From TrEMBL, chains A, B:
Keywords: Aminoacyl-tRNA synthetase, ATP-binding, Cytoplasm, Ligase, Nucleotide-binding, Protein biosynthesis
Signal sequence residues: none
Entry GO MF terms: aspartate-tRNA ligase activity; ATP binding; RNA binding
Protein name: aspartate--tRNA ligase
Source superkingdom: Eukaryota
InterPro entries: Aa-tRNA-synt_II (IPR004364), aa-tRNA-synth_II (IPR006195), aa-tRNA-synth_II/BPL/LPL (IPR045864), Asp-tRNA_synthase_2 (IPR004523), Asp/Asn-tRNA-synth_IIb (IPR002312), NA-bd_OB-fold (IPR012340), NA-bd_OB_tRNA (IPR004365)
Chief location category: cytoplasm
Enzyme Commission (EC) number: 6.1.1.12
């Protein structure tokens, strides 16, 4: 099987990007590639280019829109594409072929055009200049007529300018020989990438200088999400999100956890409460799971000592806030515990310190790209995650003049305030608050051994916002059923859950965290919709 | 932060299991552990053991049911648990503490009991014998009175018997000193693990010998899934499933893909067709996505060159077959292609060969455990995945006397037959059939350049069953809209999808595969419900 393409087309990743300074061997390989390209180009009558005008142009085959038939998987030509990210001075004087989006187009008279081509966040400047037997005036006109964001194939010779190139990530230019459009964007885009990529700081600065720059609001961004996603910040955000999930999986695998998948269509409601999406399941009333809680515990009963799940979570709440979504990705963990819920907090602490370290070390470019549009300070966290009891938290607030119900929950405001106090006192923006009042926790939470008004539970905070909830669970079926009833849950609807505790189950605990919230708070984004690819909130079901 | 527990309790995994022959250093550590245990035991008034009878037994503290208060996260005792999988001759004469399920209990008179304790699929024999000042007759009685599947803590001295131990995975015994029950199973379980773990072969054999053994049918298994999951075969199946997902992710990461998450609540229906689950989304009609198809393509438009998604897929079809589920996990891939849909087939071929290799090499124990209950032959596959065109497939069937519509789809029977023919001719049970008739593919499939009756699409088969569908997509919005209409889809409902092609999108393609089907077919299981943790089919919404 030929893996030629898949090897040469590998986009930038942790593994790629090592060819910045090609060795002699690599240069020889590139030379072979170039020869193949030339051979292919000689046989390139298979590219039926359609010139915009003047079919009499003897150089018409060098530019134009690619016909559909030439994009329908004809026999392969053997042409080899180079990634924009891999373009560098080592390729000087060589012919390369790239595919990317027309990021910007700038005409210089009728004889020259500058195209910046963007691929996967990387950009390169391409120069189209009239040259005898190579580039016709018609070709320059064609280049200048391209619409931004159109996908184009550019073939040309790599050159290294004497001065630094502004407005492109790669420090080489391409002297264009061939230019073909693979996919035309509409001439007037609903939002310009340039506008969508602009920071608030830039807009304010311009305003002070008397210039009004376009500000793309969050709703417009989401309406045209595929355009919005092309900004460097968004390219960064979703690569960071992917890494958050990767570290979560890798860390837990090393700790002996296995990944499971539990059903999201369930009978009854997953944890009680009214805010569920209901549906008809073949004549039976059903709803979408508010969490994998019951199922991950059943997996523990099923003999899997340590499990995790990455899956969709549904909340029908009418929460129109910066931090709530109706559909999000839950990162859930459940594990046997031997003696103490601190065993779960140990996992939480180590996991997140590992994650933060990894992001800071391995996602520098992504974090910088995000920071350029949405400036943020790196998260402050300790090597050993700080743990405070809820009582201690209440006391700290009290000493700061904030009185709260010692057996109620923290509201958003008191969470923020406590976050500030903790930051001042302990110099960390990531900490665990545990031993919550039992009354504010779900029915399956284990009460404390020494005071039933408290529970073996915890929340975790990043930058003053709650992000993780966890606890030891009640594993005695009689007590579980009793607590469910006390919390107003119809025990009938969760009978197979409670029954699963009658067949022997070890003491256990776990936690859950929203993937989008981790990214939002790590990068101090002001809206969770920024870290959801296609967000769902009470007002939005599109796209 | 103390990570004491999380380090010593790591369950068996690829990384664990290295302490089979402890070094001197490790032995010294174990000795220190033992001393700590003794110290803890001396202070063990914290374990409020409740004897079954005769509180006057001076050894009553050595056994009994653990009181709730002692499982509510009291201050830690410092006791250290050993995993059953780590028990071996190197621990001879040392005191160990284990937690597991009472797998079997066998009384030998009133002075002795044999307990087999199971943890994460590993088992060890524990012997309770009356001994002065150590084990009372009441303790033996307590042991014999335990119900199977109860979770127990066993402390005792490791011994190495002269003869091989049958009925346990570990070749050591524990001479029990302390025995406490953490979670009691009901005395009569709805299904016995022993029965659930029995192979069809064993049942038939016994029947021929005149003995009727219990056969647990699939429905009963699913009704009591948490018990059924405890069988060695099921422990294997879900560990294999986890590995399938891991290899999928790892391979694609290396190839420069990034993982995304798309919404499952969507407006309209994802690919047309009536069989969707409908729900009310805050007053707007919505449904559950039948695939992430449209969203993964929109991610390509959004500038992510190569994406994959692991997520739930919903099909409301009334398919009561061995291979259909109403909710399953889709492994989806979408990627830019330069010239040819074979670039996608390259990824499919390499990915699955890598996956099969990995499973065969690294999941031997799991595959053996599955095979003991559900015997199967290892999958036959080639290093370079075989590719046949649909026309070639039709021809092979024709030569074998099976006439099918050359522009229709294969039915289950002809798929099976073709699988046999391919196996005979090419010695592989894994192959790709491509260039399907356009009429049997979804609207977004790119027609062939040379014959619009065919399409740039493929299916992949394992053991004669279709498992993967893939294709090049139409990336020209006008043609896409036209094809959608021709296929009877209301273009209005997918307008944001079609619009996303108006902003420039490279030619692209991808494929989708069901996680449960990969596991089912790799292990030749006869029912997809066996490879779904809590399956959903037209008849089943529970547990």
């Amino acid at each position: 099987m030929s893996t030629n393409e898949s090897q040469t087309q590998t986009p930038p990743s942790e593994e790629a990007g090592v060819t910045k300074n090609p060795s002699k061997k690599e240069l020889a390989k590139l030379e072979r590639q170039r020869r193949r390209q030339e051979a292919a180009a000689a046989a390139a009558s298979s590219i039926s280019a359609v010139s915009l005008e003047d079919a009499a142009d003897p150089l018409a085959a060098n530019y134009g829109d690619v016909a559909l038939v030439d994009m329908q998987s004809k026999p392969k030509t053997g042409r080899v594409w180079t990634q924009v990210s891999n373009l560098n001075g080592g390729l000087k004087d060589q012919v390369v072929l790239i595919r990317g989006r027309a990021h910007t187009i700038r005409a210089v008279g009728k004889k020259m055009a500058f195209l910046v081509v963007r691929e996967a966040g990387f950009t390169v400047q391409c120069v189209v200049t009239v040259a005898p037997d190579l580039v016709s005036p018609q070709m320059v006109k064609y280049a200048n007529g391209l619409s931004r964001e159109s996908v184009i194939d550019v073939e040309g010779v790599v050159s290294v300018p004497d001065v630094a190139i502004k407005g492109a990530t790669q420090q080489v230019e391409i002297q264009v020989r061939k230019l073909h459009c693979v996919s035309k964007a509409v001439p007037t885009l609903p939002i310009n990438i340039e506008d969508a990529a602009r920071s608030e700081v830039e807009i304010e600065k311009a305003l002070q200088a008397g210039e009004q720059l376009v500000r793309v609001n969050q709703d417009t961004r989401l309406n045209y999400r595929v355009l919005d996603l092309r900004t460097p910040a968004n390219q960064g955000i979703f690569r960071v999100q992917y890494q958050v999930e990767n570290i979560f999986r890798k860390f837990l695998k090393r700790q002996g956890f296995i990944g499971i998948h539990s059903p999201k269509i369930i009978p009854g409601s997953s944890e009680g409460g009214a805010a569920v999406f209901r549906l008809d399941y073949k004549g039976t009333p059903a709803c979408l799971a508010q969490s994998p809680q019951l199922y991950k515990q059943m997996a523990i009963s099923g003999g899997f000592n340590r499990v995790f799940e990455v899956g969709a979570v549904y909340r029908a709440e009418d929460s129109n806030t910066h931090r709530h979504l109706c559909e999000f990705i839950g990162l859930d963990v459940e594990m046997e515990i031997k003696e103490h819920y601190s065993e779960v907090m140990d996992i939480v602490g180590s996991l997140f310190v590992k994650m933060f370290d990894h992001l800071n070390e391995n996602c520098r470019n992504e974090l910088q790209a995000i920071g350029r549009q949405y400036p943020f300070e790196p998260l402050k966290y300790l090597r050993d995650t700080l743990r405070l009891t809820f009582e201690e938290g209440v006391q700290m607030l009290k000493e700061a003049g904030v009185e709260i119900d010692p057996f109620g929950d923290l509201n958003t405001e008191s969470e923020r305030r406590l976050g500030q106090l903790v930051l001042e006192k302990y110099n960390t923006e990531f900490y665990i608050l545990h031993r919550y009042p039992l009354a504010v926790r779900p029915f399956y939470t284990m009460p404390c051994f020494d005071n039933p008004a408290y529970s073996n539970s915890f929340d975790v905070f990043i930058r003053g916002e709650e992000i993780i909830s966890g606890a030891q669970r009640i594993h005695i079926p009689e007590i579980l059923a009793q607590r469910a009833e006390e919390c107003g849950i119809n025990v009938q609807t969760i009978s197979s859950y409670i029954d699963s505790f009658r067949y022997g189950i070890p003491p256990h605990g776990g936690f859950g965290v929203g993937l989008e919230r981790v990214v939002m708070l790590f990068c101090a984004l002001n809206n969770i919709r920024k870290s959801s690819l296609f967000p769902r909130d009470p007002q939005r079901l599109n796209p």
